[in-house]
Amino acid sequence: MFSKATRSRPAAGGSHTAGTDWSPYGRLEDAAGVYFLHADVAMDAITGVLGRRRVRGFTLERVVDLTEAGASVWQEAAVCDGRRLILWHSEELADASAPGGTVLDSSVQVLPLEAIGHVGMRTLVGRDDLGRRVDRGVYLVLATAMPHELSAVAADPDSALPVASAKFRPEAFRFSKSLDDGGAGQIARLIDFGRLLGRLVPG
User: Fold this and answer.
1) How do strand 102-112 and strand 116-127 relate by DSSP bridges?
2) Is the Cβ–Cβ distance between 172 and 148 less than 8 Å?
3) How confident is the model over 105-120, as pLDDT tens digits?
4) Angstrom distances, CA of residue 103 to CA of 36, 74, 78, 106, 157
């Protein structure tokens, strides 16, 4: 779902540019502030549904796509408050009538944790030159029971029963980090986020 984006390491002296590694920051506001191009838009959307509830865990993603029209940025946050999964994303859309030629499409989705029926996490584990464990990547999938796609399947013409069926695909959300895409810090944070959801999702 996500492609690779160029990211820089935290700058010294408290000066940051968008795309700075967010993994050292425990507070959502701080992490979003150094990582997102539109942190104010993200926080307005997320806090608007968070209310007074405390953030239990989060993961962030930012992808830069280079096209003939220039650079397009996709930004995404997944936040858990202990009862709900709050998903925010934004995408820049071309709009000739807007100053600068683009507008920001900001969307927020809220899911109760009871709606998540499956939490799957795959971790790529390796060793460094000294034989110490190194987590080289993580892939997290959250699937719900809500229909995302329902497509008809034609009946088998050789069957004596002319009964058609349908293929049901549940809605799923996918998150990934690797040493090349996010680095060791963001890998660790996504693993923590996946474990948190694994503990909180009702069994």
Assistant:
1) unpaired
2) yes
3) 999 999 999 999 999 9
4) 16, 13, 22, 9, 50
